[in-house]
Amino acid sequence: MFEPFFDQSMRPLQPTGIPDEAWATRFDEKSGATQVGRYDMRNFRFDPVMSAPMRFSSMQMWVDEAEGKLYVAYNAHLLRMTLPENERQSNALACTSNVSRQY
Known about the structure:
single chain, 6 strands
């Protein structure tokens, strides 16, 4: 799956804190919802973590991993959504282990 690579325009995809992984979106035509998830850039695999009943791209969103929030610029509004609880916990652990490897 190469969709997230084609979605990049004004900036690169936002890193998750795990090497070779970034936050990305994929629109599901069948459900009419945008899936937000982790994109493994090495294996070209998308793992959805949540969906929203609207269409937006990776360039319109920002994930605040520390707060467990997703921000989306949509129709001249800034929307805030909460990441699933299990995603926030795994995120915190991944970021902590990534920081400790750098030193």
